[in-house]
Specification:
The protein is of the alpha+beta class and 100 residues long. It has two domains: 41 residues; 49 residues, IHF-like DNA-binding proteins (HU Protein, Chain A, Irregular), CATH 4.10.520. It contains three helices and five strands, in the order ααβββββα. The strands form two sheets. A three-stranded antiparallel β-sheet has the order 1-2-5. Helix 1 crosses helix 2. The longest helix has 20 residues. 0% of the residues are buried.
């Protein structure tokens, strides 16, 4: 599912809301999650999961094409850990075919 499909599903399920308002709300939610992670905060959506940021220390890597050693800078990467309810639904058959 892409963001526009999520917005469409929410709009269809809530016909009393304007599509543009649903889109605005969804964008605000994602922007707030991004801002919180950028500050180094943890974002927990109970039952769904938690987003955190992990620090990757600087290191020496290797260019796979040339084999040359390259310096890889420190970076921060987003990490998502699923919540219990999401894990349970995925593993207890309460989902549709996710093979595609």
């Amino acid at each position: 599912m892409i963001k526009s499909e999520l917005i469409q599903k929410i709009a269809v399920a809530n016909p009393h809301l304007y599509h543009r308002d649903v889109e605005h709300i969804v964008n605000i939610i994602f922007d707030e999650i991004i801002e919180a992670l950028a500050r180094g905060d943890r974002v927990e959506l109970r039952g769904f999961g938690a987003f955190t940021v992990k620090r990757r220390a600087p290191r020496l890597g290797r260019n796979p094409r040339t084999g040359a050693t390259v310096s890889v800078s420190e970076k921060h990467v987003p990490f998502f850990k699923t919540g219990k309810e999401l894990r349970d639904r995925l593993n207890n058959g309460n989902h549709h075919d996710i093979s595609h």
